[in-house]
């Protein structure tokens, strides 16, 4: 740890200069795996027990099994003494290593297993399902080679992650113990969550269960290889514990990661995972400061509560989810009922339309009040609008309701006391009424003419049909007479 190092300042600087790849490569260079042996992993009998041939456990920190057909499992104990943290990082179990996996948790007195991957990702198996398919004692998974039986007893879904509770029975001693699985289901392979918010909620849930404390066995953390997502989780958790104990400026994230890499190779696989770790640490540290200003006397184990505002949304190409969907709108009736009891505003009553005044710019015209307005014939658009009605009666009905035309003379306004705008509006209304009435009369006239023409055609058509039938019949008779008489 380096004194006086501000994590947020470092994050902003690396982000602005886009130096995450450079920093990540420096970390990889400083933590070369050649310094530690992996002789057990490359033994012929142990090679089939490794999911990936290039991810092997270091000999000095590997977990050793005490019973069963082998003492080997691809897992390491990672210890951060200043944070009082211990984790077992391991690969996703293979079909042939499921019994070794449960035996390791039993012998190490682990209270929880943290699963950070899906069983199948990108159409490839990343982990074999190491728990029973169904709940209940009749669906127990019996592992005879290690003398254990696994019973699935409880399930809880929290949208982005879920928990499963298992009861592990030791068939030799008859003892039993419960183990909780915390399964993060929305973390993409080689990627990062969409934002630190849900990740910190997951971490808070794990901490609240007390499965990371010193008085219980180390929690088992795995993804597919047990180095990328698993390393990210352990780095964020350890740094937040150190910040809670020593303060924000007393923790160097890179140093903590280098310390963790001495126990298991390749922890954190991408520069984007390193960047996300900084984001989650900064966001979690802000909540620690808000909830407990006196960090020296603050118990930080269960005090992480993610805020609504993230440090910065991740731009990773591997983001496959939206961690926080927008809230649904309120029901329509509820929103209307909120205003049901409010009185409507009063409408001012005017003795004449000419007394109304408007301030709109669109109402201002340059036509002098005493100059008659030109009569504009309807354009093609106006005719098209009129023809949309089904009959002239409907148009006439509208003229009666919207712009009634009456034979009674309307009172002529006194233009000497009326404003120019009021005079202009009056003239426009009068012009509109006259145009509408003329259009109605024209349409009725055309309809009457059409009806008369139809009647006339029908009256002319009947004699023609009759005459044509007679002429046609006479012609046929004459033709037959001439043919057969000759």
Descriptors:
486 residues; 2 domains; eight-stranded mixed β-sheet; two-stranded antiparallel sheet; elongated
Quick recap of the structure?
This protein is an alpha/beta fold. It has 11 helices and 10 strands.
Overview of the molecule:
This protein is an alpha/beta fold and 486 residues long. It has 2 domains: 7-297, Protein tyrosine phosphatase superfamily (Protein-Tyrosine Phosphatase, Chain A, Alpha-Beta Complex), CATH 3.90.190; 353-448, no CATH class. 37% of the residues lie in helices and 12% in strands. It has 11 helices and 10 strands. It has helices spanning 7-17, 20-30, 98-107, 196-208, 229-246, 253-260, 271-291, 332-337, 380-387, 392-401, 420-485, and strands at 75-80, 85-90, 112-115, 120-121, 124-125, 141-143, 148-157, 161-170, 176-184, 219-222. The chain has an 8-stranded mixed sheet, sandwiched between helices. A hairpin with a 4-residue loop joins strand 1 and strand 2. Helix 1 (7-17) runs antiparallel to helix 7 (271-291), helix 5 crosses helix 6 (253-260) and helix 10 (392-401) runs antiparallel to helix 11 (420-485). The N and C termini lie far apart (134 Å).
């Amino acid at each position: 740890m380096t004194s006086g190092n501000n994590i947020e300042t470092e994050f902003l600087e690396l982000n602005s200069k886009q130096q995450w790849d450079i920093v990540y490569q420096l970390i990889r260079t400083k933590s070369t795996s050649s310094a530690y042996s992996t002789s057990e992993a490359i033994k012929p009998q142990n090679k089939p027990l490794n999911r990936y041939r290039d991810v092997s456990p270091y000999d000095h920190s590997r977990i050793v099994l005490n019973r069963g057909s082998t003492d080997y499992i691809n897992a390491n104990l990672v210890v951060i003494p200043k944070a009082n943290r211990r984790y077992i990082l391991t690969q996703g179990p293979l079909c042939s290593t499921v019994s070794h996996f449960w035996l390791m948790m039993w012998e190490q007195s682990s209270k929880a297993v943290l699963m950070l991957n899906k069983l199948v990702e990108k159409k490839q198996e990343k982990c074999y399902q190491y728990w029973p398919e169904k709940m209940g004692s009749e669906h127990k998974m019996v592992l005879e080679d290690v003398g254990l039986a696994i019973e699935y007893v409880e399930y809880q879904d929290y949208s982005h992650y879920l928990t499963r509770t298992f009861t592990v029975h030791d068939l030799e001693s008859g003892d039993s113990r419960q183990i909780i699985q915390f399964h993060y289901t929305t973390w993409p392979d080689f990627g990062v969550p969409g934002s630190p918010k849900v990740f910190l909620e997951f971490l808070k849930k794990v901490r609240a269960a007390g499965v990371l404390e010193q008085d219980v066995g180390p929690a088992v953390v795995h993804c597919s290889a047990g180095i990328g997502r698993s390393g990210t989780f352990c780095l964020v958790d350890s740094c937040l514990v150190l910040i809670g104990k020593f303060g924000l400026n007393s923790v160097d994230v890179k140093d903590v990661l280098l310390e963790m890499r001495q126990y298991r190779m390749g922890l954190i696989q991408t520069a984007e995972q390193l960047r996300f770790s900084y984001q989650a640490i900064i966001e979690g540290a802000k909540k620690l400061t808000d909830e407990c200003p006196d960090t020296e006397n603050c118990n930080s184990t269960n005090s992480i509560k993610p805020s609504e505002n993230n440090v910065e949304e991740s731009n990773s190409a591997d983001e496959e989810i939206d961690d926080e969907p927008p809230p649904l709108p309120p029901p329509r009736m509820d929103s209307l009922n909120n205003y049901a009891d409010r009185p409507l505003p009063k409408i001012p009553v005017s003795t004449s339309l000419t007394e109304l005044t408007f301030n709109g710019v669109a109402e201002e015209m340059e036509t002098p009040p005493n100059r008659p307005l030109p009569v504009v014939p309807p354009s093609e658009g106006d005719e098209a609008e009129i023809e949309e009605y089904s009959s002239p009666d409907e148009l006439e009905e509208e003229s009666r309701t919207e712009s009634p035309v009456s034979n009674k003379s309307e009172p002529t306004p006194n233009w000497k006391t009326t404003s120019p705008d009021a005079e202009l509006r009056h003239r426009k209304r009068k012009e509109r009424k006259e145009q509408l009435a003329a259009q109605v009369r024209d349409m009725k006239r055309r309809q009457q003419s059409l009806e008369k023409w139809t009647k006339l055609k029908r009256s002319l058509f009947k004699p023609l049909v009759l005459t044509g039938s007679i002429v046609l019949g006479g012609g046929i008779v004459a033709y037959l007479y001439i043919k057969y008489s000759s």
